[in-house]
Design brief:
Helix Hairpins; 365 residues; Cytochrome Bc1 Complex, Chain D, domain 2; binds copper (II) ion; Immunoglobulin-like; 11 helices; alpha+beta; 3 domains; elongated; 42% helix; 10 strands
Length: 365
């Protein structure tokens, strides 16, 4: 009776598992880790598989012994429990065998960890800085530096300001305005840090995830083999818009990379006040300048935004310590700051009518 019931349960579980497996496969759900696109990510994947096989084998063996014992030594068969309470042999065995298994598993894992830490002699270095809620990329060898934030369409959809259905937007919440463009087959050192709170830079295809911590610089590297677009996200809860600061790494061939570098260096910096405001300020103060009551003040009609320019420049340059209002002096150029401040003084019904110039901003630095 009992055995028959048990068999039914097992059949049932197997059928539902296989159903789950096929529906998830057809829906392109990946149940496993990604293999990624770097030698390290493949090693991480292989390690994961080795450990998975080891623990599966141990699990099967342990449960087999357990179920066998339950069945063959059950009370209805007249089994009588052994009555001993100390066995040196048993205790030594169940200590030494697991220790050996752990040591054997630790050897390849440590080798990979050491390789991951080996950041010396890179071909190039990129510094990644987390901000609430965007990323900044500095190409240390090229003097290229830019912000990368959630693309406009995703942003509109998530705020309910777009007609587009979420399902119709490819890479919804996983797309940005400026990709991090990198060459393939180069050792790229990636430094992570942050300007406000702790973030984490995570692109699964690269096989690692690293915290970006204010005041610290973490050191990592990657070597991408195949051109492609690899997406990721901030992986450390960093405040209200944590879910809206994706990462897009675009790996290209060396000539394409050099052309991109050339373009970045020669194209004039575009100063579009509305766009600058949207990128840097609207997550908190909102596109309509109304802020969010209780958290972020409205700029429409704000005493500072329509008061004397000096105080307005001061709070944008230096921020307000202890609040979410960061100092934008170190982030943005005089031209960009002058454009944003002038915009704020003359948008959403603010009509101060004055023009703040880059010279005014420079004088206040
Ligand atoms: Cu973050």
């Amino acid at each position: 009776m009992f055995v028959k019931k048990l068999r039914n349960y097992i059949v049932c579980a197997a059928v539902s598992l296989s159903a789950l497996w096929s529906t998830s496969a057809s829906a392109e759900y990946a149940l496993n880790l990604t293999k990624g696109v770097t030698p390290i990510s493949r090693e991480v994947y292989d390690l994961h598989m080795i450990i998975l096989y080891v623990v599966t084998a141990i699990g099967v063996a342990v449960f087999a012994v357990m179920f066998w014992s339950i069945l063959h030594h059950r009370k209805s068969k007249g089994a009588v429990a052994a009555q001993f309470h100390h066995s040196t042999v048993a205790e030594l065995t169940w200590t030494i065998i697991p220790v050996l298994i752990l040591v054997v598993m630790a050897i390849p894992a440590t080798k990979t960890l050491i390789k991951m830490e080996e950041t010396t002699s890179p071909d190039m270095t990129i510094k990644v800085t987390g901000y609430q809620w965007k990323w900044k990329y500095d190409y240390m060898d090229e003097d290229i530096s830019f912000f990368s934030s959630l693309n406009e369409e995703s942003n509109k959809i998530r705020k309910g300001e777009s007609e587009t259905n979420v399902m119709d937007h490819e890479n919804y919440l996983l797309d940005v305005d400026n990709h991090v463009v990198v060459p393939v087959k180069k050792k790229i050192r990636i430094l992570t840090t942050a300007a406000d709170v702790i973030h984490a830079w995570w692109v699964p295809a690269l096989g690692w995830k690293r915290d970006a911590i204010p005041g610290f610089i973490n050191d990592n590297w990657t070597y991408i083999e195949e051109p492609g677009i690899y997406r990721g996200q901030c992986a450390e809860l960093c405040g209200r818009d944590h879910g809206f600061m994706p990462i897009v790494v675009e790996a290209v061939t060396e000539p394409e990379y050099l052309a991109w570098v050339e373009k970045m260096k020669t194209q004039p910096v575009e100063i579009n006040p509305e766009k600058l405001y949207a990128t840097h300020c609207s997550t908190c103060h909102q596109a309509n300048g109304q802020g969010l009551p209780g958290a972020f003040p409205a700029l429409a009609g704000s005493p500072i935004a329509i008061g004397p320019a000096a105080a307005h420049i001061d709070i944008v340059l230096n921020g307000k310590p202890g609040t979410a209002m960061l100092a934008y002096g170190p982030q943005l150029s005089n031209e960009e700051l002058a454009a944003i401040i002038t915009y704020e003084r003359n948008a959403w019904g603010n009509d101060v009518g004055d023009v703040v110039t880059p010279e005014d901003v420079q004088a206040a630095r």
